[in-house]
Amino acid sequence: MNNMKTGIVDVGGGLRGIYAAGIFDHCLEEGIQFDVGVGVSAGSANLASFIAGQKKRNYPFYTEYPFRREYMSFRNFARIHAYLDLDYIYGPLSNSGGENPLDFKSFMANPMEFIAVATNALNGEPEYFGKQDLKQDEYDIFKASCAIPFICRPCEIDGVPYYDGALGDTIPIEKAFERGCDKVVLILTRPRDTVRTPDTDEKLAQRIRHRYPLAAKRLCMRADQYNRGVALAKEYEAQGRLMILAPDDTCGVSTLTRDKAALRRLYKKGYHDAEAIRPFLNGGR
Questions:
Q1: What are 80-106's pLDDT values in tens digits?
Q2: What is the CA angle 276-13-162, rounded to 5?
Q3: Which of 116, 237, 255, 258 is the most exposed place for a label (fewest CB within 10 A)?
Q4: 3-class DSSP state of 114
């Protein structure tokens, strides 16, 4: 690979992100590295563990912790006005003294560039955060990138509320190419030919429109943005500049599905599909 610059983009997808977790664990096992990583929503958390070199760290975040009511439950709506408690995920679970801490020192020491995408809830525009925006045990950019409208409260950074990065830049492959990448691996967590429809997004948008009208408008556009992003990725793929990794099926896993057997199957699909990465980076398509 010599002087070739490589990137990987993880678009997230809630608990479907376990597919990407399998891909990253395979890469860690095989010593496959990248120069740039761009993460959206759960993809930003997946990338952090990969950059820190923590194989299998992400696995319990999909197969164990979601089954706790502190993680996600209707009880949380009464307690914190959100189904998913991002403060629990990026606090007691992820902090240095927590149950499954991010190796922050190793994460920062790795020269791989890290970009997390979040969406400004006030104007609906994407914003991009990096390692310089993180401190030990201060993981607000992960919370911001993962904050699904209505399911989560928006996360404030410097007084600005943010929602899930998928609203603003659903498939940020251009960001990787802007960073000078010659080849990019794109991880989708739906089959590659899936055509998204806006039905669910429009229902969620109704819940936030009164307070964040521009974020709601952007949310209603997400399905179209996703479909156009996949079409562009396929163009880059035809040129040999990008490879799409996507499951042939999601094993019944959706954004918030809690089915351990299905989650394990999807993880294994990702681990297996990652075998195509090295040939692609070495010159194959």
A1: 999 999 999 999 999 999 999 999 999
A2: 130
A3: 258
A4: strand
